[in-house]
Design brief:
With about 70 residues, the chain is of the alpha+beta class. It is built from 4 helices and 2 strands. Helix content is about 45%, strand content about 15%. It has a two-stranded antiparallel sheet.
């Protein structure tokens, strides 16, 4: 099976009870970029965005932000 990198923004927002707009403000990452990451619509990941999100949310373990999941080939 193929694997896919998933950015766990929806889970981060729920666990911290904040909005995407608030995360954008805290991390200084454009709302549109966060939305695309959140919805899996972004093909490339800007690692400076991941660093900014981690810094804004006080995350030390990248596995809280990124996951590698198996994808079924259809």
């Amino acid at each position: 099976m193929a694997k896919k990198v998933v950015i766990k923004i929806p889970e981060l927002l729920r666990s911290r009870n904040i909005s995407l707009r608030e995360l954008s403000r805290l991390s200084d990452v454009r709302h549109a970029a966060l939305s695309e990451l959140s919805n899996g619509k972004r093909e490339n990941i800007n690692f400076s965005h991941i660093e900014k999100i981690a810094d804004a949310l006080g995350i030390d373990d990248i596995r809280e932000i990124i996951d590698l999941v198996e994808v079924r080939n259809e």
